[in-house]
Each structure stands twice: as structure tokens, then as C-alpha cells.
Amino acid sequence: MSIELRAAPTPTAPGLLLRPWRDDDVDELLAAYRDPVLRSWTLHPVRTTADARAFLRRSRQGWAAGRRFSFAILEPGPDGERLVAHVLLKEVTPGRSYAEVGYWTAAPARGRGVAPRAVTAVTDWAFARFGAAGLTRLELLHQVDNPASCRVAEKSGYAFQDVLPARPPFPRDGHRHVRWRA
User: What is the chain's Cα-based Rg?
Assistant: First the structure.
């Protein structure tokens, strides 16, 4: 895929590059998932090279189907760009008024404003790209015991909407945050 999004630098953080995942991202994806905190919040942790390749294959298939758009978030560093996060726009269906945004942040990038900037960039892109097809609302969901995700949602302009009851595979109630197209 040739699409690339950018999140501008801030006074304290470099700009971000958002692009579709590539086959050569396997090693960085595996490194990010070595973090037990990340694994604890994801339904399908990436533990092996085969898992990473399956993740990348699903990402390509989602883009090809035009319903699921998975972005690798990269930040410049002294040794080149490095993976710092992932943002996903999913459940995009023509004529449907809403879709969902999900994300994770690699351990070294947490607490530096990476996730809100990346989520905002994908949100803006989603409304620009799919607004004419009827997309008016994006939802960001997380478990109630994940206050960091509440902060990301708020910083990204997603207002708290309601509490969702637990349902498999999620063991706890969740929060739904919503952002409307301007």
C-alpha cells in the first residue's frame, strides 16, 4: 500500500509516520509483543514468527478488502525509524455510520503522547476518506481497568459515551468513547 499519514512533531516529540504494515516489520512486531503489558491487553498476542506473519497477512487482507486498515506507527531515531505503535480502523462498511478504532503502544513509547497523535491522525484520515460514504462516528473501546486508554481517548477527542457489559472474550466491563465527524 502506498498510503502514508503523518503526525506533526511537538515541542518535545518527533513527528510520526503512519503506514501500512510491511513484511519486513516482523522483527519489530515481535519485539513490541515481548512486552507482557501489551500481551495482556491484546486478544491475539504475537509470540512467534509465524504469528507475526499471520498478523501481517491479515493486515494486507484487511486493506485489500477495504474494511480494516492497520497502520504501523514509526518514529525517527538515531538508527533510523523504529516501531512505536499500531493503530487500526476496523469494521468500515459503505453506508454504515460508524466504525471502530483500536491501538496499542510499544513499551518504550508509552507516556510520550504517541498514541493520541497517531489515533488522531487515523481518525482525521478516516473521516476524510469515508465521510462521503456515510461514516459519521468512530468508537474507541477498552476495558474499565485500563485508565491509560481513557486518557488516550480523551486526548484524541473521543468523549466517554457509556459502560459496556463484559462479554466473551473480554472478562471485564468496558468503556465506549466516541468521536463524531465535524
Answer: 16
DSSP string spanning 83-115? EEEEEEEE---TT-SEEEEEEEE-GGGTTTTHH
- pTM score above 0.90: yes
**Burial zone of 14 (CB within 10 Å; 0-12 exposed, 13-18 middle, 19+ buried):** middle
pLDDT attached to residue 180 = 98
pLDDT digits (tens, 9 = 90+) for 95-120: 899 999 999 999 999 999 999 999 99
Whether the CB-CB separation of 17 and 51 falls below 8 Å is answered with no
Phi-psi region of 113 (alpha: psi -120 to 50; beta: other; left: phi over 0): left
